[in-house]
Amino acid sequence: MRIGYNPHKDQVLEKSEFTHQVVMPVYIPNQEGYFKNSLSILKLTLESLFKTAHNRTFFSIVNNGSCDAVVDYLEYLYKKGSIQELIHTTNIGKLNAILKGLVGNTIELVTITDADVLFASGWQLETAKVFKTFPKVGVVGIVPQFNMFKSHCGNVIYDNLFNKNFKFLPIKSPKALALFYKSIGWDETYNKDFLKYGLGIENKEVNVLLGSGHFVATYKKQQFETVKSYLGYKLGGNTEGYLDSAALEFDYWRVTTQENYAFHMGNVLEDWMSEATINNSDKDVVISGFSERQKMNSISYFIKNKLFYKLVLNKRFSKLFYSWKKLPKQMISNYNSVKAE
């Protein structure tokens, strides 16, 4: 039986004061073996976010089946008010956990990040500058990586093919780039030319490199207006492809900041992680009001992201393309090979 009228019925929700959301899935089932240092690394990740993000940032943490110690820590942060949303679930897979965090708000930007990322000062402001400078950008990574332009970048190459500012740019933080590949277990037998130049777009306001990685990136929320309700993999499978392709449906570009603004920590705690100096000099700067786009038609999608892209990545044509876009001559012959020759 119901008596009376719910006073909240038919009330319009007030517009959110938040302009930027951070969604982080957390899966730490125990504190042994592979996960021995994971809680300590999670704490470093969140502390770096709290220090560097402005006060209109909405933190959504999705506990994806973690152990009691992790649950207690996250509950403490939520009750303290450090995070705005805490979702608990059994292990439903990484992307399904992300999808839970994406819905329920209209915040225009969302950063999706792993739980082992050390954020550096200025990442949020630089990300916003990229969105403002390049209205067609829909995804901004903050950690440069090798060959990013070879994944889901057909449209940005197509759109800028005759742009004189579209060319190979110097890597600003080669040490940070090398550290990233060390953090994911690579040895140093890779082609060192990738530490020197990356394909990007030069602009008087801010430069960008083409493409974006998966472990931390910021998206225009418009891409997720209609999200899938479920993907059938806990990790891998088609999960990463879903996040990659969402931008292309709106003809959004995927790019990364030229400077490195975060560090991948992995699952092993090292001294440099806790010794890193992080300040909050940009916390008071809030940029919002980013442009949106309509979905592109299927013919344009096919031409840009399938037909044209296949031609650009063709081994024979790509070397002409590298030369045209100002890659140093001595690097051209081996630039298609990640391994040193």
TrEMBL record:
Molecular function GO terms recorded: transferase activity
Highest taxon of the lineage: Bacteria
One of the Pfam families matching this protein, by short name: Glycos_transf_2
InterPro entries tied to this protein: Glyco_trans_2-like, Nucleotide-diphossugar_trans
Keyword Transferase found: yes
Location of the Glycosyltransferase 2-like domain: 36-156
Statement: the UniProt record of this protein carries the keyword Transferase: yes
Keywords: Transferase
Designated name of the protein: Glycosyl transferase family 2
